[in-house]
């Protein structure tokens, strides 16, 4: 922990608020270690039980995590906005291989469609809000073409919005949720913030492993969240063989909530092999962010009657509905042959960039059979990230994406010029060689 910051307070609530203030102001960095319970209790003149209660409250809200002998640390991305912080820092003039965002040059143009909507779209009042039937019809056709089970359809403000609403509607704080490991950082943060207990399910190139899912089910998980293809951060794709095996296991747990994130959708070369529908409670989520742009905060969702009704019910208590302007824009984009051609081109370009990075890494155990990321196990991710930054290359530390998985780094190739792949690989290999010499 930064030596200049010391938690204060005489009660559990005051100590908890002090730590949260340190995170919010930036005096406590992500990953910073907190004092041990006994040390802080002695320093503040309170009982260890008071500090333990404060740490428990912070942990239940997803601000800190406990890692065995590693003690209690601030989570890599705690659910509190930090002053002036906007994502991972990128060296000036350096390569941004950390953000995970799509290449803006490969996104369809919105302007012509927005102009047309501005001229023709009627004003919508409170009574006219909700999912647009035309969008639901198009989504249903796309789901059917990909072999996704039929069900009730709705629209949410992005993939994480749908996942959060489904989890909250079915689960209670303290419930166990099976998650991919390594997996999507946003999801791991959300699970922690909602007070659920994450259960690690290892992932190989064919998706969640059979043994990993079996262990999670035996542990009594109430929910499972998986990625169909282009898994973040490993690029895994659930194969037909693996899907069949996992569905057999899931079919014996009819009450289990299964949420499937297909964020790549049109950008994926691989066909989907859904797990959705293998239990009684399920939802398959497809966002528009990667193919059409992160600012298009829209996802289409199909699921069982109860799950979708609960998602829509919770939306009515908050935002109400996704803007019909955005929904009509999605309809326009899906019906536009030029937009389709742009997404098709992006799919091929992303594959070329990803494969250039994997090829440059040679015999290193890099993973990334689909999507826009390459996952590389490394002995020490902290020194690797820092060393590459000195070389003008920003990558993401694996700690953001893993629970029990050994250290690694995520290299986002969405905006990588294939001509730079060799430079990145050389820097990685040089840093790995230096780590090996130190260990020897």
Class by helix and strand content?
A: alpha/beta
Radius of gyration: 23 Å
Tell how many strands the DSSP assignment holds.
Answer: 14
Show unreliable segments.
none
Mean pLDDT: 92
**DSSP summary: helix tally:** 15
Reading side by side through the largest sheet, how are the strands ordered?
Answer: 4-11-10-9-8-5-6-7
Order of secondary-structure elements: HHHEEEHHEHEHEEHEHEEHEHHHEHEEH
Helix content: 40-55%
Q: What summary fits the major beta sheet?
A: 8 strands, mixed
Mass-distribution shape: globular
Distance between the termini: 29 Å
| Strand composition percent | 15-25%
Brief overview:
The protein is of the alpha/beta class. It has 15 helices and 14 strands.
Write up this protein.
- The protein has 440 residues and is an alpha/beta fold.
- It has helices at residues 12-25, 37-44, 48-60, 111-120, 133-145, 159-170, 185-193, 210-218, 240-250, 289-292, 305-316, 324-335, 337-360, 381-390, 421-439; strands at 64-66, 72-74, 95-97, 152-156, 176-181, 197-204, 207-208, 223-227, 257-261, 281-287, 299-303, 373-377, 393-397, 408-412.
- The protein has an eight-stranded mixed β-sheet, sandwiched between helices. Strands 3-13-14-12 form a four-stranded mixed β-sheet, with helices on one face.
- β8 (223-227), α9 (240-250) and β9 (257-261) form a beta-alpha-beta unit.
Main attributes of the structure:
single chain; 4-stranded mixed β-sheet; 15% strand; 440 residues; alpha/beta; 14 strands; globular
